[in-house]
What we know:
Elements: H1 5-29, E1 45-51, E2 58-65, E3 71-74, E4 86-89, H2 94-127
Antiparallel strand pairs: 1-2, 3-4
Protein name: Flagellar basal-body rod protein FlgC
InterPro entries: Flagellar_basal_body_rod_CS (IPR019776), Flg_bb/hook_C_dom (IPR010930), FlgC (IPR006299)
Family: Belongs to the flagella basal body rod proteins family.
Amino acid sequence: MSIFDAIGIAGTGVTVNRKWMDAVSDNLANINTATRTSDPAYEAKYVVAAEAADGKGTQVAGIVTGSAEGRRVYEPTHPLADEQGYVKYPDIDMSSQMTSLMMAQRAYQANLQTITTAKEAYSSALQLGKG
């Protein structure tokens, strides 16, 4: 482990949490995207994080998508409504997405604070030899 590993490890956390926030943002942006009942609904995105291959930090192992089945809503006046008056919306829960967004934001901030603290510690260490 080198002296700058703290910054590198926290940097991997920043990257993963940014991608997590991007996925949640996409899900929230498409929560009211209506489609025809014959078409697939927007599929929610979920980031899968895993330990980095070198064991230092974390990485995005993949993006898992939700169901394209969606939920049918009766809106007979909607331009995309079928002959029974139904349209399809993504099956995304707003409260769970907001919770995920707050968790990702807090983790992102914690990683940035780790980088700042490590940088300050390294700067202080360089000042030890100066009179």
